[in-house]
Design goal:
Rossmann fold, homooctamer, 155 residues
Chain lengths: 155, 155, 155, 155, 155, 155, 155, 155
Amino acid sequence: MRGELQVAVIMGSESDRETMEACIGQLEKLGIRSELTVSSAHRMPEATKAYIEEAQERGARVFIAGAGMSAALPGFVASVTAYPVIGVPLTSGMPSGVDALLSMVQMPPGIPVATVAIGRAGAKNAAVLAAEILAINDETIKKELKRLRDSWKNR
Amino acid sequence: MRGELQVAVIMGSESDRETMEACIGQLEKLGIRSELTVSSAHRMPEATKAYIEEAQERGARVFIAGAGMSAALPGFVASVTAYPVIGVPLTSGMPSGVDALLSMVQMPPGIPVATVAIGRAGAKNAAVLAAEILAINDETIKKELKRLRDSWKNR
Amino acid sequence: MRGELQVAVIMGSESDRETMEACIGQLEKLGIRSELTVSSAHRMPEATKAYIEEAQERGARVFIAGAGMSAALPGFVASVTAYPVIGVPLTSGMPSGVDALLSMVQMPPGIPVATVAIGRAGAKNAAVLAAEILAINDETIKKELKRLRDSWKNR
Amino acid sequence: MRGELQVAVIMGSESDRETMEACIGQLEKLGIRSELTVSSAHRMPEATKAYIEEAQERGARVFIAGAGMSAALPGFVASVTAYPVIGVPLTSGMPSGVDALLSMVQMPPGIPVATVAIGRAGAKNAAVLAAEILAINDETIKKELKRLRDSWKNR
Amino acid sequence: MRGELQVAVIMGSESDRETMEACIGQLEKLGIRSELTVSSAHRMPEATKAYIEEAQERGARVFIAGAGMSAALPGFVASVTAYPVIGVPLTSGMPSGVDALLSMVQMPPGIPVATVAIGRAGAKNAAVLAAEILAINDETIKKELKRLRDSWKNR
Amino acid sequence: MRGELQVAVIMGSESDRETMEACIGQLEKLGIRSELTVSSAHRMPEATKAYIEEAQERGARVFIAGAGMSAALPGFVASVTAYPVIGVPLTSGMPSGVDALLSMVQMPPGIPVATVAIGRAGAKNAAVLAAEILAINDETIKKELKRLRDSWKNR
Amino acid sequence: MRGELQVAVIMGSESDRETMEACIGQLEKLGIRSELTVSSAHRMPEATKAYIEEAQERGARVFIAGAGMSAALPGFVASVTAYPVIGVPLTSGMPSGVDALLSMVQMPPGIPVATVAIGRAGAKNAAVLAAEILAINDETIKKELKRLRDSWKNR
Amino acid sequence: MRGELQVAVIMGSESDRETMEACIGQLEKLGIRSELTVSSAHRMPEATKAYIEEAQERGARVFIAGAGMSAALPGFVASVTAYPVIGVPLTSGMPSGVDALLSMVQMPPGIPVATVAIGRAGAKNAAVLAAEILAINDETIKKELKRLRDSWKNR
């Protein structure tokens, strides 16, 4: 897809790739231009910050960050950009992933993270949420979302 | 504030009013036109649906729903509208509110709820998240958010 | 089995079929006429509502709804019908299913969901609970329940 | 109210009285004849069993049992009678009451307990659930439930 | 081993046999006369009560009861006998078994259950605890326990 | 009460005194000679060990240890003596006390701790459990326990 | 106390001051030079980073960071400095503070946070842990720790 | 590696060896002299105490203790030595290991345990934390840590 970047998807570790690719796949189905990057907030804070700022300049208007365990990445992204940040809690820590969920959702005043479900289900729904946000001012994406919702009726 | 409605805030019960008014207060500080409505998804599904559709027509582009216990309201709103829905888990059920958080965040494919922190802190950050979403295409709100972030630096 | 429908069993997703068929199987053993339907409260609220109303007209006096994750389906059914609704929490969300259990059991005033155990064990006991409810005014089912209880004594 | 007993409400300890009286109050509002008894399954198993059998003979068709901590009472009642048993988990053990909820809901095959929400909210909804069960064959209670549901529309 | 029964081990379901046989095995290693019985407190309360009373008469001075889910069996045994009752929480309900642990340990005043660890580890330690109790007045068992403790020193 | 010590009650901290005195009170009611000592397994391991050995020599046949947070005291006592050790989890750590309960109950092979309920309720039942253990060979205590159980019937 | 800084104590919010002052108080008792600073990793990442680097230059060899909710501060500190970082989980989020504990302790490879107990107890023990770390090469602090441990023996 | 021992790694059970060897491996990579010992605080308190004191004399300045279930070992080590003790919670008890984590982290005043993540990830990071502690006064280890951190930048 040509054109500016619309959604930047970041994950903290290579091991999260399979789950977060479900997010990219869903974004593509909705006709949204995205890219997937590995960048650790703890190991490479400077590089991660630089990437966020550069993605913003290339057009990113929504960020999606997947992380497990201490799950600091989405909050880190939200501290750098004022564009909406969607957090996907992953189960790399506790089996239930509730640890990552609680870490992600409990942000300080003024720096929210829009948290979705744990794991693959959340990764896919993060894409739909990004689409809903962009659709407010994008008729093409709005039509894609309508098509998605209409498809349920024929089941 | 004159002009069309921008954010519709809904809560399931009168007893949630104090918490959700913190959300309205924060929206006002950011110069966003909003309104607060009580409507139960379980007791008045038809009336709630009608309100969501009418709020949409009056300009609402982001919905914020606060709910505790089974916390079905945000998911109900998301099943009616394709605009972004932000969920605020409340502690009317278990003392920790984790029950409402888990109910709210775990939505089926295609119907995400952007979940924020539990209780008053979440109610206020839901307003900031709504502002971030609207700011993508609204320079006035963008400036308000910048002012908020700049205020932290002077501390 | 001929005659009117007695118990309508609904599940939110195709993936819940295997578990909920254990419910249907137990209902059949107890001589109760039932049917199993997939219908999502979030994706197809209108169709789900229509099904509930039509099942009621066809004779359903007890509803059983199985759901995982946000587990809104039993509450949705209970908001449509005043006949007893039995909820079966499923483990499609957290491994323990406690998330679905808490979502299902914590209903607003006036709209209870009779919640049973998580997963397959709950699905089967939901059938027995439905039988106990119908047996209050049905001697045939009462005899079946007595036969079940008597079978334990011979072990 | 004259006539046979319809619903027998049992609690394990005097300290549960205030919560369970909310159940009796709701039953009365719905025009259902009920009575509240203290009887411990652990301390007085024989007397508890005798009471259940006698209540059955006096007309009880639904049993409601409230209990906290190990919360064995509803299961005990369900082992004695084949009429529907509704369990109300109380918070006399852990602050959240999830311990009582899990104990109550996880019954062995063939002996379900219809579990409702924790504490006072559950106690009141247990009454509504009992009404829904009896209303299947009782037009007077059916009308009371309809009146309750209609009252929500005028809010 | 000849002589009177010393420890009666009861479990609620056939499916608990493998775990509880580890208890019997440990009792045998410590030279204690025991037997393993399946008896459900919910399905066969009368038969279970009769067994407990008869085991007492045959010499049982400590009871060990293993149970999962609502885990009512140890409490049931403790309501029948005033001899010490050891409870072994099993994982037939939630994966962690904490549900059974909490149900078992939270007994009403005057009817304690001596609860040990969840699953196989608990089943074996229940045997050691029974041995410690009997050893207070039994020099042979006291020597066996000393032998067990001495064996650790040579590692 | 004259005669040898029968039950030694130990607690890890002065702040646990009020709860553990309920244990001493219950022991006295049952006619059992006991004493309450503060001794930290972490701060004074040598002194705690010496106390346990000396209490044993003075007649103690059952030990009761109350502890919160990491709750190592009961396990420490059980590593020193082969007489039965009853653990009372206290809520000095997490509000629910489940942390202390899990720490106490999960002992290594051969060193069980007979765990009872959390807090004051557990402290009192620990006394009853100690009485049940001693009653196996003590007719006076046996009679006291019978009197306790008989008192329930007259309620 | 004159001389270089030894331990830098940071907290994410003014509301954490009372708890973290217990840490400073304990450090002073052990004769360690410390200072307490408020700095939010999310709101002022650059200023927080600058403070950590400057504190390092002024002599800080151990960092203590207290934080609640998403509790990102200790991990942020650990990503900036390779000196030991001690994390104190606070209860500003969930009542139990387990959310902050899990967030703090689950760090990515190579960036550990030495986590202590939740709240005030942890804040004080963080000071003792810092003392233990510095005492490896500081005879004065070593003597203070010995004095502390000796004081327990006289109790 | 020649020279004095620097870090003593202890585990409570042979079954923890595989996890704790990851700790030894990481210590070796950082050029630190360490050894791995099995010693149970409950089964062999005297021998464990003797080992800690002897390891101290052979040069150990940091102790790492891995334990699951009641997880008393790190606290036991900390009660014997005033050198820093790092605790690694293992999952031999509950599947999540939160039980061991809570037991380990909640130490009494004056006896902290520096707790890291659960399982293998924690075992490796315990080694890095030990390195950070020793590096305060050891230029060689400081260089190794710098090399580790620099390696992240080239990714």
